[in-house]
Amino acid sequence: MERWARFVLRHRLWVVLFWVVILVAGGGVAQKTTDRLTIDFSLPHEPGTKAADLIVENFHNGGNTSPALVTITVKKGTTVEDSAADIHAAFDQVTKDVPNTRMVDQVNAGGDKAFVSKDHRTAYAYVFYPFPKSQTDLAPTKKLQKSLDAHKPAGATAGVTGLDALAVGSDDQGNSVLVETIIGAVGALAVLAFVFASFLAVLPLIIALFSIMATFLLLLPLTYATDVSFIVQFLVALIGLGVAIDYSLILVTRWREERDHGKENHEAVVAAMSTAGSAVLFSGLTVAIGLLALIVLPVPFMRSIGMGGALIPFASVAVTLSLMPAILSSIGPWLDRPKIRHENTASKGWSSWARGVVKHRWLAAGSAFLVLGLLFAAFTGIKIGAPASDSLAKNGAAYDTLHVLEDGGVSTGVLTPIEVIAKTSDAPAAAAKFAAVKGIQTALVSNGPTSNANGKTVILVIPKDETVNNKTVQPVKDVKKLADTLPGVYGVAGLGTAQVDFLHGVYGNFPLMLGLIALLTFILLVRAFRSVLLPLKAVILNLISLTGVYGAMVLFWQDGHGSNALFGIQETGAITFWVPLMVFAFLFGLSMDYEVFILARIREEYDAGHSTNEAVIEGIGRTGRLVTSAALILFLAFAALASGPGTDLKILATALGIGILLDATIVRSLLVPSLVSLFGRWNWYLPDWLAKLLFIQPSVLHEERPTQESAQPTA
């Protein structure tokens, strides 16, 4: 790292010019990159995906989408039966006005009464549409509404609802990626202004801008090699902002410390790179490992998030460890004005905190484990699935239409129909069998031309209740089990089936992902800390804190203790099935950042001759303010992400934000220093054979001495 720092200083002009070119190029292709991102949540090789693909192949719609429900409500004093012909004509016209759609209503489904509300004032029909391939190709809600308004009976009202329409809610689409990034940047600038109390506060934002543009540039060729999920753009902008600022914060603070200790500017840059720069490098690797582990999952969109997300720490580390020293060596002292805050001594407040934790280490550790234990208890009640319909929107036309159906006595189970593709001749008999399954309201065979093609028919199986999580999906499992025994049935598709397949295909591979991340991180940290116990503790604490995050998600979103007050969203009843994996992949690496920053400094102080307790006090005194500020910056980035559209994105953003705060407070401020103090000399044990295997110097142990309670923070 020292050799690299001196190389950058010798060629700093060329380094700056290189990154300026990258900035311009990244800005030029950013829009093209985002336009090439896709929407695809399929699970290849799973039975539900095969059935969905067969439906799409034959009918060019449905299969892997949640259908829209179009409704017509007649005026008071009349019934649906009074206008049956006009209502059917209006529904029939929809398929003509909106191409590539499949309509199932009461008439073409043999007159089934399930399509009429119990008060006989509202009729509804299903409209299946092609899966959107990009963010600009969304569900045709507005086109459906326009067609209904043009052809509805006189005096009637029409509406469109469904899970996709509810997920959008009102016309307010939430903040764009650019707006979210600006919100996060403004919050970060406020924190940086407090930390540096000088013009240096702007520098990490400049580094973040270069990092984000570099990531978009790196992401473009990946979109040609494979489909990349649209979720990546949010992560690049917001997590890229937070990570780049965090890394810059650590490096710049160490540079100021070295200058305050009397080093000449260039030598201060080299010293900062040799110490904080190494911590940044290892931190970036741990984040990348957590994300790259997603490639072991058999899900294309998760793999693409893993590959695309791994570019974030790669770009952030590259920019921080090259452009930052080039700038600091040139205009760093000029930016460090006014010189209000000094770094020549450790923080008195954080040193006092660490001294208290060391003195009462059993109490500190016990309190932290108590909090995490309570959150773990909440985690045991987690439901994996999709948000319930009443949590997807609090206003808008789709919300109003759903309540018209509910007020008329229609169960929300109609929102999650099961599609079964079968041979046309065997469809009626199969439908009769499906209708008898427990938890199923009815099973329909449409005689409409859009539901019958190439000797195949789609049977519509409607559950009594929404099949949106692992606690309510049993009817789907029973239908799938029955389908395997019936002649002429090719497969079962739908939202419930996708959940069953996801739980089987993805979470079935989760232990492999978990083991891979833990092993690679452990090896990396053994090399970073020259210890066996510290990396083992870091990995275990990360896993424990993640269960705490999941528990907080259950309380906040699943049970609704806070979601309604903060976002106006009712309890979701479940956590979206892909979110826990995303939270694990990002938080495992991001929270390990703080572990690396803190333990690297504690290790440095121990190597300088301090006892373990003294090293803890000095290490926390030096890094406490930085870790807290870095966590706050990331939290603000995630808060900005939560302002975006969609309940799923809000769940992900709040989970990441809660995780960062939980990790920076309970885990890193209480549990880490108390456990390091408790373990004493064992923290630094490293077998000689392992040191040789990893090409590092053996750890040198020295005698522990009592910590002086009245000792002042050392310089």
From TrEMBL:
Residue ranges of domain SSD in the record: 200-330
PROSITE patterns cross-referenced by the UniProt entry: SSD
Principal location class: membrane
Pfam families from the UniProt entry: MMPL
Keywords: Cell membrane, Membrane, Transmembrane, Transmembrane helix
Residue stretches spanning the membrane: 177-196, 203-224, 230-252, 273-299, 311-335, 362-382, 506-526, 538-557, 577-600, 626-645, 651-671
Location within or outside the cell: Cell membrane
GO cellular component: plasma membrane
InterPro entries: MMPL_dom (IPR004869), Mycobact_MmpL (IPR050545), SSD (IPR000731)
Lineage top rank: taxon: Bacteria
Membrane topology according to the record: Multi-pass membrane protein
Protein name: MMPL family transporter
Species of provenance: Nocardioides marmorisolisilvae
